[in-house]
Specification:
Elements (H helix, E strand, L loop, with lengths): L1 H14 L1 H28 L4 H32 L19 H26 L5 H4 L8 E2 L4 E5 L5 H8 L5 E3 L15 H7 L2 E2 L4 E5 L9 H8 L4 E6 L2 H15 L6 H5 E3 L4 E2 L4 H4 L3 H8 L8 E5 H6 L1 H11 L11 E4 L4 E4 L24 H22 L7
Parallel strand pairs: 2-5, 2-6, 3-5, 6-9
Antiparallel strand pairs: 1-4, 7-8, 10-11
Length: 399
């Protein structure tokens, strides 16, 4: 009798539409709470670049110091006997000690570099993410490795464009911001540097780009101490155009700086070029390359033409992919030419389903420079360009 009453009660309960809906809603709510709890627990365990970067300063400092001490003797030996620069017959003089004004201008240029770099990073963060592009890393797989390839230069040569183009390749993972490890942050140690890198899977290449490495005297020895097998990429551009572009960047941040002409010459009457100004000094490519060849063979350094990166991006990217030992995946189909900016853009950027052009900090309009000043600079750079062509075995056609 009691059994029958229980069965009758259950049947009456389930036969009520309202109660049935309440039970179903309760079950769905419990499932939703469980999923939310699981998601929060998982997300809290996900690695964070910023957090881990700061953690690297703390926990990695001890390891970094041990790593640093293990390499300091080697680096000291490497730097003890630098090879002399074979002078080229021209009016080039070794830069003297900078004046206070020169140091202020250099600081302004460094600030402009940092601002441009973060502007580009903000642009990357605003792209619409493509879930399929992140699927390989959604479960936290992979590991952080020291870079096997580095874009070491040159400033205002097209390094940001090259890095953005390369990030389309599925076998390349690159950190967005410039780490400046081998010139400004070397004392933090290799473990700190490694923590800045993105996670990579087996067969993928870790990359970074910091254009100032090419003109930093200590950088070749330091990178060699990390790994002698590191592949180096240098984007070069007509040194006169590059110097004007460099000045234009600084001018956009500090409109009260002296004119390009006044900074170019030590003495306008004699026409003596002021090589202590970094905008001029960077373009003496042969001198800087000579320093790198003390530590790396020429076949480990690839020179990318900044001009061809604009006129034929797929062709230059093909050379880079060959150099890195990767399949040629980035081709003409990935690019379109933006008439407004005057350079190629990606039809589909990494981690996005939308077209992508470099930010407003790229493609600035250059100020008008006195043609006589431009010609004087061309005459100054010509012997250095000829030496550079000879060293690389490639005529870049700047003269």
């Amino acid at each position: 009798m009691e059994y029958s009453l229980v069965c009758h009660s259950l049947y009456a309960f389930w036969s009520s539409p309202v109660k049935k809906k309440l039970i179903l809603l309760s079950i769905m709510f419990l499932i939703w709470v469980y999923m939310l709890y699981s998601c929060v627990g998982y997300c809290s365990s996900m690695p964070s670049l910023v957090v881990e970067g700061y953690r690297g300063k703390e926990t990695g400092s001890a390891v970094g110091k041990r790593t640093e001490s293990s390499r300091v003797d080697l680096v000291s030996r490497l730097l003890a006997n630098p090879q002399p620069w074979e002078d080229i017959e021209s009016d080039y003089e070794e830069p003297s000690i900078r004046t206070a004004a020169s140091r202020d201008l250099l600081n302004n240029e460094l600030d402009a570099d940092r601002t441009d770099d973060w502007d580009e990073m903000r642009g990357e963060q605003q792209r619409e993410p493509d879930p399929s592009a992140m699927s390989s890393f959604s479960n936290g797989s992979g590991s952080k490795k020291l870079p096997q390839a580095i874009i070491i230069g040159v400033k205002k040569g097209g390094t940001r464009a090259l890095l953005e183009f390369l990030r389309v390749h599925p076998d390349i993972r690159a950190v967005g911001a410039e780490p400046h490890f081998f010139d400004r942050n070397y004392e933090n140690g290799l473990e700190w540097y490694r923590e800045l890198m993105p996670k990579t899977l087996e067969g993928q290449i870790t990359m970074e780009k910091t254009p100032s490495y090419f003109v930093t005297r200590e950088a070749p020895a330091r990178i060699s101490a990390m790994s002698r097998d590191t592949k180096l990429i240098v984007v070069v551009r007509d040194p006169v155009t590059r110097a004007i572009s460099d000045y234009t960047q600084t001018l956009s941040k500090k409109p009260d700086i002296p004119s390009f002409e006044s900074l170019t010459f030590k003495n306008r009457t004699t026409g003596l070029i002021d090589t202590s100004w970094s905008a001029i000094q960077i373009g003496i490519y042969a001198k800087h390359l000579d320093n790198w060849l003390q530590y790396f063979p020429m076949d480990q350094i690839l020179f990318v033409s900044g001009e061809r990166l604009i006129s034929d991006p797929a062709g230059e990217l093909g050379r880079v992919q060959d150099f890195l030992g990767l399949k040629r995946i980035i081709t003409d189909k990935h690019f379109y030419f933006n008439q407004t900016k005057g350079f190629p853009c990606l039809k589909k950027a990494e981690g996005s389903s939308k077209p992508h052009c470099l930010g407003k900090t790229k493609g600035r309009t250059h100020p008008n420079i006195d043609p006589e000043v431009v010609q004087r600079l061309r005459d100054f750079y010509r012997p250095f360009n000829m030496k550079f062509y000879q060293m690389t075995g490639h005529n870049f056609g700047w003269d």
